[in-house]
Amino acid sequence: MIKLENVNKVYRTKTIETAALKDINFSVEKGEFLSIMGPSGCGKSTLLNIIGLLDEPTNGIVNIGDTSLPKYNTRAMAQFRNKQLGFIFQSFHLIPDLSVRDNVELPLLYRNVSGKDRKMMAEQALESVGLKNRVTHFPSQLSGGQKQRVAIARAIVGNPEIILADEPTGNLDSVMGNEVMDILLRLNSENNTTIIMVTHDENMAKKTHKLMRLYDGQQVA
Question: How far apart are CA 53 and CA 28, in angstroms?
Answer without folding.
Answer: 16
